[in-house]
Protein 1
Amino acid sequence: MKKILVLGAGLSTSSLIGYLLRHAEKEDWQVTVGDVNLENARQKTGANPRGTAIPFDIFNEQQKNQSVRDADLVISMLPARFHPMVAEACLEFGRSMLTASYVSPEIRRLDYLARQKGILFFNELGVDPGIDHMSAMRVIDAIRQRGGKLTGFRSYTGGLIAPESDNNPWNYKFTWNPRNVVLAGQGTSMYIRNGQVKYIPYHQLFRQTEKASVLHLGEFEVYANRDSLQYREVYKLPEIKTLMRGTMRRPGYCAAWDVFVQLGMTDDSYTIDDSESMSWLEFTDAFVPGTNGRSVQERLATYLGIPADGEIMTKLSWLGLFEKSGIGLKQATPAQILQRKLEEKWKLEPSDKDMIVMQHVFDYEYKDKTYRHKSSLIVIGRDQRETAMSITVGTPLAIAARLVLNGTIRATGVQVPTHAEFYVPILQELKEYGVEFIEEEE
């Protein structure tokens, strides 16, 4: 019997744990799910005799070591900052670890030690990062094998609301960590276009957007991710002329979100005095210049140069930012206050379904001609448990776990799924779960 330890039982683990439990009898696995909230773990394992729920505290050294030592494979779904702590125990007891997170510098430094131990630290096995890498490399490798030369690569992903549940002016609801959405893009974004490196500071990010059209879903807008330049090395494209990765939203979202950026409402670096006694109108007014007798709405529109009766103001009014009701959040940062309002207005209703949209655009040369290839993915969630986010984050991770345990994947060290030995079997099985790209050649 092989023992699998899953650390963390958050929203995105439903499909992961469900897959492991469905295969547990046939593969002879015992699946232990540990979470700081025991009830979360119990909900994921249910009454399955092959599943066990335990309370797990990453800061309890004895418990962490005991749990890792008793396992054959560890899957960490904890926040990424805790992966190195799990990895240390895995090194001590010779256990491989899988995650859906980006490879951090701390994890990357463990490559040599992991190889020496003969264990695998397999990362970036979710949707973004994860499915994006695998699907991109499949096409990139195919173009190379036929003798083509990549000149441009753009990759966009969006965690969105399904069309049948899209019923607010923002065309958006929270389908993953709200805090990450509020703080998204802070810093400077970098990409390369026509051989020239481009930089977009945060205050310009939501003004410099791209357009994308995805199959029957129609138009989207895209803002650049933090650092696209590093993917020249990841995808082995050192001489590529254009490379950009970005996040997808429905048209109109970015212009409205830019209001929060320009006003400073996404700032998380200081707290607002007496925030618990402020109204939403007072909160908004605090960021708008002037007190000349005109309404907050009028002054805001004038300050930012937007129509007072336009689409952007409609979105802001719908959120309730001009209401006189109280915030009720003590000693909070602007970003925390904004998040509170968005969580109220952008929450998923019980019948809502989420959606993952991904598109890669490859420009390449072959025999003195230029071509464009598009790979597009649409995944609609089934319900509140089997969300599109859960399916696309958890399923590739679970498939990878099975391939490691049955010996199909024998790699050691710190790895990401950009090699054919990884992405071919994972992408093939993902088709069974409705995760399949539509390929178009122009």
Note: The mean pLDDT is 96.
Protein 2
Amino acid sequence: MDWSDLERPTPQWFKNAKLGIFVHWGVYSLPAWAEPTAELGTVEDPLEWFTHNPYAEWYYNTIRIPGSPAAEHHRKEWGGCDYDDLLDQWHMDSFDASELMELFKESGADYVVLTTKHHDGITLWDAVGTGDRNTVKRGPHQDLVGAYADAARKAGLRFGTYYSGGLDWHVRPFPPHTTHESVNEGDRPRDEEYAKYAAAHIDELVERYHPDVLWNDINYPDAAKNTTEPYGLGQLFARYYEACPEGVVNDRWKVPHCDYVTSEYQMNLDNEDLGIWENCRGLGLSFGYNQVEGPENGPHPRTLLHTIVDAAVRDGRILLGVGPKADGTIPEWQADSLRAIGRWMQVAHPILAGIDHRGSATASASDDAWAEVGSDGTTEFLFAAPEDPTVDSAEFNVELTDASVATVVPVQGVRVDQDGTCLHISCEAGWAGPAIIELSK
């Protein structure tokens, strides 16, 4: 076979999906600590980024960097214990997958992606070859992947599996990463043995859980970047598509085939010009739960709504990260943010589903507001809101060119009045999100 044999149309469900939920949950959720420093892609010095890494899920790497605040925190709070000792201390008395899926569904999301194995190598199912280094044999003593998969589908959500094929700090230990080159090229597994190990895991995930998304991270062992071997990615993808005809794979395998490309926070934004895409980011600065992080470390829910709209009109979607606590519950500030997003998405969801490019109409907002026009190929929609998402009330104007108002879609707390080609938009206390106006040519 050839890589081109894997090409096929993008499944309609993924084209329609404009919001997904990215769940980072693992042993790192127990110490739950990182410095809330900055977004990925905004720190120029790699050593500074890795030494003060805001990603709590990278705890195992950061505590091994000499002199890092995380290393000092681990010494003081956890006695400098081995990372694997944390697995035996991980318990979850409050875990209710169905309750979580209700929250994710309420947010307006269409799919949820769970970290089945992060870079620490601990799996959330009894994966072949892991011995007792998984959540079935130790710690929670549960198949957490199965719990999420079942609950997601019962809630009407598509389910995806994140798998770190590019790094495994236990099976293929390297010195702690302090540069991006170390992560992506220098210190990652490339060999055939590890390629077979990873392929066995992915085959298991497909056979057991039938994921709608295979979300690989970082890279993949070079020995598997072929279409000829059973453990090669070409054969693996073919088996996946046969088992899951509506499944999609991302681009982080670093091979010629993918169903969509990705960006992360402010990193790899150029990918968003390469076709159907997805940007992942956390509600804060970390994907995994960080106990010292709060709403002040992330964008306002109304800012995230602007991000979702901006992605939709450019054929993209947002994979929004939440970090459950070790007990399986979502931090209240993150749950509040999801509910706030959901208030607007209840109205906007069916409209956004069809939008995949910018409209031809021009909308010019006053300096204190933003406006975007998206099209589903038949109908164009205007979205507009104040630039400052925190205001309790605001008034602004939008000037329309090459279009007129067909219908004003009701949005809580938002009123639209028209004076010729000028729209006067008022946002009152408790406004849910951007105004939505269906346009006619």
Note: Residues 264 and 366 are 30 Å apart (CA to CA).
Protein 3
Amino acid sequence: MTLDIDFSLDELEAAEAATVNPYLSNPEKGLQLLARLLGQPATQDTQRAQLSRLHRLIHQDFIALTANGSYPGEAQALSELQTLEEALENLALFPDLAKKTVVGVGGGFSAGKSRFLNTLLGVDLLPESLEPTTAIPSFIVRGEDEIVALNTFNQRIMLDRDGVQALTHAFHEHYRDNLGEGFGFAHILKLLMMHHAQLPWQNLAFLDTPGYSKADAGGAAQTDQDIALRQLGEADHVLWLLNAKNGSIRQDDLDFLRSLNHPQPIFFVVTQADLVGEARVGTIMDSTRADIDKAGIACAGLIAWAGELGCKQGRQIAGDDIQVWLDTLDTQPKYTRHRQTCEQVLSGYIRHNQNSLASSRKKLTLLNSLLPLADELPKDESGTLQSMIQEQRQSQSLFKEQLDRLNFLQEEMLDAVGAIVGQRAIDMPISDELFQQAMRDHQQQAFIKAAKRFQYVADLGHTGSQYYLGRYYANGLGLPQDEKQAVIWYSKAAEQGHAGAQAELGERYYNGNGVPQDYKAAVHWYRQAAEQGDAGAQAGLGECYYSGNGVLQDYNVAVDWFQNAAEQDHADGQTGLGKCYYFGNGVLQDYNVAVDWFQNAAEQGHADAQYRLGDWYYKDKKSERGFLIFGISIMQSIEDTEAAVRWYRQAAEQGHAGAQHRLGDYYNYRSQEAFGIEYAKDAASWYRKAAEQGHAEAQYRLGECYYEGHGVSKSKKAAVRWYRQAAEQGHADAQSALKARPYWWANNSSFGGL
């Protein structure tokens, strides 16, 4: 007679454990265990106080502050903060975990996770059962042999091996009447921390997670799936287990892993490979690898594993070497990002309110521009306009108050997180700290190092770093010069309200540098920055109104913006305001005031101010008997002439074409004196510098030099070339010169026609 016993060895082992485990076989001891697990701390130490503080900041202050907002990421933000809180609880009470790289072990029900971990690590700690063991995160790390449970009151409870083995669904089956329906240890325990002195890897922590897919688990299956997703999502790396009896990876495994979307490649383990026979192992491995690749899941490795019952150590049958993979992870330093996470979550809210405030300012500016028309509007429409203006002013006040409270809350949270982290982890600095480090590198001219820091923090959304990264690309500091990249990073910072970036973006749209020239876009960004008090943007906006680029020309408005910039000692603003007084545009003409502003800007090295100051001394500050040659007074004092040449030269050496042309005129005039040949050469040299920049008058003068052989070798061909460039810009004298010498064109076809 043969007995048909339909039990696996796993089932038999689980049944045996239930009979010998004192917490399962003895009701009194079982209930004593439960009472211990429910214990509350008698006192509150510093770490628990900080945890309580953080809990209050998240669950009271944060929720209250954001209750009336319209931030679309509110639910996600709260979830991230709650996850952060849980991670910090683990860190505060189990500081050794903070410095460990966490390897999460996941898989479907009956994949054999606990068995695999026990045999991989050479331990006998995790309960092995057909029933789901628990949804409690269970960590195994190297350390003095001990097992600690953390309950919902953040109380540490020491356990023995039998206590851990009892923490399964079997416990509920034994004490159903005492515990009530639906009880689970996940309700009272946050995690298990198991230390083992002989663990092979010093810097790794292995995390056992619940099987997500028990077919008959009903609603609990979805709960376990959610728990597994969260736990594995927080792990640094993932080991995913597949039962060899399934033949390949199942579709629900693939769906789970796609939803997990872990940033690191997954290492796959085919368990119970010894039960399917060696002949099938290769086929299973090939099929599994093909399905993983087809699903687009990054694979760190694939092995077949055998962990026979009764054996403490498992063995690798085929595939990649998991030992090498784990050894590599063990050597990598572990950095935590708790403060960065906190900062990023709160920064999302802060940016949302900043954008709302900026939008309100735009609306208020538009509404204020309509105020001059209020008297002409019907009474009810005028009242509506006034109401809308008042509404926007109130909105701005609320946004400013909200921003102040958010910034304060962020400081409080970062302080609490910093106090918890302490020396327990190598915590990555928050963005502001990294930014300050980058700025110190910048000041020390360690540009490559600074660029790397700016890049890292800019990617996190830090506006100051985005702005500086734009500057680094614009100027080729520590990075290849790239105006398009500069515009990209300036744009990111500008959209977050960074005034300096907005000003730089305005300048690029104005000059067509890195972007197509767009005066309207320039005005937009200049205005954004100007209204925040950025002097450069105020000067730029003034120039737009002065020249009528992107807006209707309005000298009065130009004067206002130039004045704002000039009073901040901005050289562009001073030069622009000087122009207004010099020519009487938007103000009464006043040379003395103009020269004062030019002087202020010139002494700061402003090329155009230096040029205009040179013009004042050399061309416009004339004696009563003065007359002009080349548009230049020849009756100035020696002091005025020297001052003019000094300012022209400073501007010319900065590449100012107008100043280069003026120096050409000066030396051309001086060439009539003794040593005229040297002066003539200087004249031709300065004319050439200006001509090569497209200065029409200088092109004509250089043509004259070549025609006459003045300071250069006589060359009709060169003369024609420069005449022609000037003529094509509409220069009348150059056009006349070409028409007066038609034989040049007739005798040399390469010159072409006019």
Note: The CA atoms of residues 77 and 345 lie 6 Å apart.
Protein 4
Amino acid sequence: MDELVQEIQTNKKETILVDLDKIEHLVNKVADLVITNSMMTQKIDELKNVEDKKGMQETTSLFERHIKELQDYAMELRMISMATIYEPFEKLIEAASIKHKKKVELKTTGETTKIDKSMIELLSKSLNAILMNAVEHGIETADVRAQKGKSEIGAIIVSAEQINGQIVINFKDDGKGVDLEKVEANALATEAVTEDELTYMSDDDKASLMLHDKTMLSIKQNIDKLNGSIVIDTHKDTGTTISIYIPLTLSILDGLNIRIGEQHFILPTTSIIESLQPTTEIIKAVGDGTSELLMLREDFIPIIRMYEYLNIKGDYEKLEEGMLIVVKAGKEKVALFLDEFLHQQQIVVKPIDKNFRDVVGISGATVRGDGSIGLIVDVKSIIDDKKHLFEKTDVAI
């Protein structure tokens, strides 16, 4: 007995309660260190003495590693497990099942997956709404399910996992699937899409139009505020899967500096798949020849010329002379054409919508090492803005 007590005491972890404001203050101070380190690195790069420069670079490299460790510890303090978000799900399912006279069973996985506490409010609202929507509109009543040869009890599976610097949350039900005809009619009525655009859309693309409905639009707006994206996969009488992709944190991220003409921007590394210098053989014209596709292995990826998109002057117009960076948001990919990519660095994300109007393609800003402001490229909004590039895939050889 004494040995058991001793083992329990040995394994017992000591905990303390810390005010959230103090944790926020700590995270902000770490962000200040990231900016200061960037400034020091900039000054060291300007040194002319090679030996002095080399010695200082080694020191700042060590300092940067310490900052990264401190940042990880600070962010860990602000993280909570998905179990906290899952907690009200059972009661919501029970209440919705009684209200709509349905039998529903809930299963959750990924309870230990950690998420930034600052995202909880918006994320919880969205996940609760998706859950209620699945019970009300997705799962059939017991008698209808029996007629289809299904179990009378509908199933909803919620999972969460961390993949490549993102949190991926999946809602999967075995209900009737999305009524695509109804979604199309609503989208046409609200002018969210045209008849011509519908003819080129896959079923998954059409399902995504439900994000324009009143309930789903509110969910989409919340996820957009978290720099996230939503992907919908649906099959008639089989069910629907709604996947949400959000970054691990909104405050500090790793970014790749890119150059377009004389302008420098920052591209979040979590969005990057690969980079390459294209050749004529892997570039194909689309439709009337005004758009281009990158043929990368078995993928046909739309190309976006960033100098045209941002309405600035670039150094190169020929694709073979510049660089392509393949990026993704959710399941969609595009290849961004730019002049050059430079160094990678940690950046502190600052919102710009409080002082300026929203700019499509720009998600925020950061302070560079020389004190100037760097704009952060918003891959998701660019892809959403250029959705028509995914719809027409006839390749003109």
Note: Confidence is low (pLDDT under 50) at residues 392-397.
